[in-house]
Design brief:
Immunoglobulin-like, elongated, Muramoyl-pentapeptide Carboxypeptidase, domain 1, 4 helices, single chain, 8 strands, alpha+beta, about 220 residues
């Protein structure tokens, strides 16, 4: 019987362990079209990929079964990437998923809103000017009201996102890193609630400390 040297066994063990470790974190491509009710390995691959993006698949369940939760996650993905939100994985959706997988997964795609920091304000008796920075190119808005501002969540690309009460002031809708928005026509010595919002070029929205207040000068 042919013997295997102990050193060779150790080397093989390391190689196998390394292969399994790298495979555990790998995404596998989707090879077929998928629809409600299907149970197969491609559904598992789809769910495994989607679960690492909570904005696409917040439930994160990997069952191999294409049910209503998976359908909703596919619709979110399609909305995020400008595809028809049909809720099934057709050729275009499959190709987009595989493009992301082949390019390294979600780390290559922008699915997060811009970070908002260095917020400052300058008040007069009738105006409030806010300045802040974002860590990526973004547009800027402020929703405000004399009562707490109620926001409408909208979809994943911020379509329909906004307030259900009060007013809005915006910059010139040009994406930049240094933001400034001036609210005018305010009443003197009046408290206002406000919500700072920045939206990046992919439609990802960030909200900074909603419903803080300021008081205009007398």
């Amino acid at each position: 019987m042919k013997k295997i040297h102990a050193g060779t066994i150790a080397t093989l063990s390391v190689l196998v362990s390394a292969a399994l470790a790298s495979q555990a974190f790998a995404y596998y491509p989707i090879n077929s079209q998928l629809d409600m009710g299907e149970t197969n390995g491609d559904v598992t691959n789809l769910q495994t990929f989607f679960k690492d993006n909570a904005s696409i698949y917040p439930e994160g369940k990997v069952t191999g079964y294409f049910g209503s939760l998976t359908k909703s996650s596919v619709e979110r993905f399609q909305a995020q990437y400008g595809l028809s939100t049909v809720g099934r994985v057709g050729p275009l959706t499959r190709d987009k998923i595989n493009d992301l997988i082949n390019s390294g997964g979600w780390t290559m795609g922008d699915v997060s809103g811009p970070a908002i920091y260095s917020v400052s304000k300058n008040l007069t008796n009738t105006t409030a000017t806010f300045s802040w920075n974002t860590d990526e190119m973004a547009t800027a808005k402020i929703f405000y009201n004399t009562n707490p501002v109620t926001m409408n969540e909208g979809d994943i690309n911020s379509v329909g996102f906004g307030s259900t009460n009060g007013w809005v002031a915006a910059n010139d809708n040009v994406a930049r890193n240094a933001q400034q928005v001036t609210i005018s026509g305010l009443h003197p010595n009046t408290q206002y609630y406000y919500v700072i919002v920045s939206t990046d070029l992919k439609g990802n929205v960030s909200v900074w400390n909603p419903n803080m207040t300021f008081v205009t000068n007398q």
